[in-house]
Amino acid sequence: MRNPPLYCLIASSLAGLLLLLGALAAQGPGAAAVASQGGARSPSPDPGLADTASFLHPGFLDPDCDPDLLPPWSAIRCRFARFLEGRRLFDDEHFGGNGRTCETCHSGRDGTIDPDEVALRLWLDPDDELFTHDGLDDFTSGTSRLEAHATILVRRELPPWVQLTHDPAATSVVLARGVPSTVNTPALDPALMYDLRDHTLEGQALGAIEGHALNTVPPTELELELIAEFQQTGRRFFSSEALRRFARGGPAPRLPLGRTASEQRGREFFVDAPWDPPSKKGLCAFCHSGPMLNTANEFVELPTGAPPGFRAFDIGVSTRNVLNNPVVSYDVTDFCGTTLTVESSDPGIMLTGPYDILPELVALLPPEQFCILHRAFFVNMHKTPQLWGVADTAPYFHDNSAKTLEEVLEQYNFMFESNVGFPITDSNVELTEQDIEDIVAFLRLL
Ligand code: HEC
Ligand code: HEC
């Protein structure tokens, strides 16, 4: 029998040395520093995985470590341990609930679901966890709504100052909403949910675990932190390396220049420019400006009356109600006690409370106690979403009513034509077929 070649021996002794070094580092001063920070360490929820991980990555602790307190080599292992556990929590952890994980709805590379994916999943496995609870037509049976529109039922508690006109005793209302993509948003947008009701990823994840997964085991603070961290670092949560670099403090992404004449014309709609009808330059940038294309720019005030920097608008989606979702009548009382009645298929930030959204945004509004803007004024306003990678994350809008980018633009023509939404409507703007083709060509570059 031949002796093993020399490089095998070297390789195996190197591996042994690494294991030894790793084991030593695990006991090292950094690890001790973390342990002495206090903070009860939660037992690793999946000992099997933890064992494999520590075997493969010597010195791997449980993910309850702080890379900033560790020497560089241990910090790398700590980050990796946190990443692996975050991924496991996002993709596989049920928290003793109905079998759903975050990945059930924020699936694949696009971080959302669409009717084609729903059809495929139903065909492959009718017992897929998507088809349960708030995925069903009425929480108990039926998959027709999911199949047609890929929407989920969202129950919103009514704030004390809102009553349903026809059912004053009701304490909540159910709305059918799309699954917003988890691409780019977790790391780069602090305003969460279509109605801006969540301000932190941890709070949002807790809500999802309770609301969608009907958990019986409460997640620990560390677990919520790891889910948040995973969504802010994993590749699948970015539409490009440029966006990922931006999230890490790199340069802000810039509008692509466009190669074809059509793309370049489409770009003009996203350039910050003053309102100068009949020119349509800057029309989309009024609301889709800034590095993430989701803040109102300094020129928005004139055509819309909205404060620059604001992040929620009524573009007529709830009013047009293409999908015929139930329209509900709300009696809304403002801070000074005046009650107004509004009807809507999804009132958006009104139910969150315009003064309970992200504090940076509240700061743009006149103080609540002056009652200059009635709470009902905010009916049908939804979050302005970021647009990077948007060509890959159909369907669009809070109700998934636009299945394609062309349908998105038809919505804007509805907004301009009808007197719904913002006063932009008064200026006879209309997107021509050529405009639509150009804008879609440009959106595909993002
Ligand atoms: C049953 C499907 C479903 C599951 C499971 C689910 N989500 Fe969601 N997610 C949604 C829907 C629907 C919304 C939008 C709800 C709204 O705005 O009212 C949403 C919103 C979000 C948002 C905000 C995105 C934005 O653009 O503001 C994030 C982040 C998110 N989910 C992460 C998670 C995480 C993390 C988990 C697991 C802990 C999870 N989701 C589980 C359906 C789901
Ligand atoms: C008055 C503000 C405003 C203007 C002007 C505006 N948008 Fe929007 N945009 C929004 C809001 C708010 C939403 C979300 C609406 C909803 O969910 O119901 C949105 C949603 C979108 C979406 C869907 C994204 C997704 O992930 O669902 C696209 C695409 C889009 N806008 C493109 C455009 C283009 C192109 C223009 C110019 C023709 C434009 N917008 C002009 C406020 C605006």
The computed structural class is mainly alpha
CATH fold-type name of the domain at 261-443: Cytochrome Bc1 Complex, Chain D, domain 2
- What is the percent of helical residues? 25-40%
Average pLDDT figure: 88
Give the tally of β-strands. Answer: 7
Terminal CA distance reads 61 Å
Name of the top-level CATH class of the domain at 261-443: Mainly Alpha
Model regions low in confidence, pLDDT < 50 over at least 5 residues: 1-56
For the largest beta-sheet, the strand count, sense and barrel status come to: 3 strands, antiparallel
| Small molecules held by this entry | heme C
CATH architecture label name of the domain at 261-443: Orthogonal Bundle
Written as H for each helix and E for each strand, in order along the chain, the element string is HHHHHHHEEEHHHHHHEHEEHHEHH
Q: With helices defined by DSSP (H or I, 4 residues minimum), what is the helix count?
A: 18
Principal-axes geometry comes out as: globular
Radius of gyration: 25 Å
Strand content: 5-15%
Strand order of the largest sheet: 2-5-6
Q: What would you say this structure looks like, in words?
A:
This protein has helices spanning 6-26, 29-36, 47-56, 72-92, 102-105, 115-124, 144-149, 185-188, 201-211, 221-233, 241-247, 261-268, 301-304, 317-320, 349-352, 359-362, 405-417, 433-443, and strands at 152-157, 162-164, 172-177, 312-313, 328-333, 339-344, 382-383. The chain has 446 residues and is mainly alpha-helical. Among the domains are: 6-89, no CATH class; 261-443, Orthogonal Bundle (Cytochrome Bc1 Complex, Chain D, domain 2). The strands form 3 sheets. The chain has a 3-stranded antiparallel β-sheet with strand order 2-5-6, with no helix packed on it. It has a two-stranded antiparallel sheet with strand order 1-3. Strands 4-7 form a two-stranded antiparallel ribbon. β5 (328-333) and β6 form a beta hairpin. It is globular and about 60 Å long. One heme C (HEC) binds at residues 100, 102, 104-106, 134-135, 152, 154, 177, 179-180, 182, 185-186, 192-195, 204-205, 208-209, 212-213, 227. One heme C binds at residues 100, 102, 104-106, 134-135, 152, 154, 177, 179-180, 182, 185-186, 192-195, 204-205, 208-209, 212-213, 227.
